[in-house]
């Protein structure tokens, strides 16, 4: 078992990237606004997205290539589509996770209450850490962060449930009107946008570079499942905290990063006690810091590989170039478009949802193509789930577009 745990890495990086805005912010809001009524949404979207996230490390482990290489082989147009979509969302996604991290840092450490200043500081620190430490640093840090987060989150929701005096209703609901837009955004980033499967395929290959003995497909799938199950359990924990502490009360989450961070930390300490304020605050901060780090690492890696393939520059590494572009672009949003952050995040989450069927189709097509040996292709049950998942994602997307 210890040998298996030592080989964990990409799956936990996936969890670190996923357990950010979608969990700390959106899952908690879901519980606060709808009680336990959206459990069905968490379970259903995680079930139907599961195959397509799994195909990232599966394809990389078997072929030794990223999903981006696979998209290129399917057709150059698919890779251009990814490039354009990613250019349209990566700055907003990076800004969104950094702003929440900055809000928590401001609440915990004081110094200044300027979210802009904290966001710029965090971006600079993360950029420095990634340039100096690269994958090895991420791989080691994420294991500590996930253990802290898992323990504190499960403990918090357990105490909240035991101390809850309000009646719990587990009746499931389907939001309408303005609630529908929240549901779409919630599903779009739960547990994460599907293009994170691309990041996972890249991290899988990076992990193999650090191993004396290549990780097997079975070990890679174990790593993925640990990370994926963690994201599902913690999503339910955050929804539960919102439902147990805030649902049915006049308390409403603020749209301002600093105020939201204070409310979020208070949500934990109200169940674990004021003595736990520092521990919970650090756990929330390190969680969002890990998300900020993983997204700042992954997008430049993905864009570097995309440029290499599109322009036949396979021997040139553009990782640092794209990190600089992402950092500067994110900084510009902090300085000039922070007031529009809510709208930008909404656009990014909706784009994540309506493009999910495309990524699902491409990932499935790759793992049943001639690039994959028959023995390593998904079994019948997984193929059926994949088809159902594509139909679900496509149907829900059409339902949303027709309801506009």
Highlighted features:
404 residues; mainly alpha; Amino acid/polyamine transporter I
Secondary-structure map:
Layout: H1 2-6, H2 10-18, H3 21-34, H4 39-63, H5 67-74, H6 76-109, H7 115-162, H8 178-188, H9 196-209, H10 217-246, H11 257-272, H12 277-310, H13 319-336, H14 341-354, H15 356-367, H16 380-403
Describe this structure in words.
With 404 residues, the chain is mainly α. The protein has one domain: Amino acid/polyamine transporter I, CATH 1.20.1740.10. 78% of the residues lie in helices and 0% in strands. The chain is built from 16 helices and no strands. The chain has helices at residues 2-6, 10-18, 21-34, 39-63, 67-74, 76-109, 115-162, 178-188, 196-209, 217-246, 257-272, 277-310, 319-336, 341-354, 356-367, 380-403. The longest helix has 48 residues, at 115-162. The protein is globular. It starts with a helix and ends with a helix.
Calculate Rg over CA atoms. Answer: 20 Å
Overall tally of structural domains: 1
Specify the CATH homologous superfamily. Answer: Amino acid/polyamine transporter I
What distance lies between the first and last C-alpha atoms, to the nearest angstrom? 50 Å
CATH class: Mainly Alpha
The major β-sheet equals: none
Order of helices and strands: HHHHHHHHHHHHHHHH
Which whole number gives the mean pLDDT?
84
- Poorly predicted ranges: none
Q: How large is the count of helical segments? A: 16
Number of beta-strand segments: 0
> What fraction of residues sit in β-strands?
under 5%
* Second rung of CATH, namely the architecture: Up-down Bundle
Helical residue percent? over 70%
**Helix/strand-derived class?**
mainly alpha
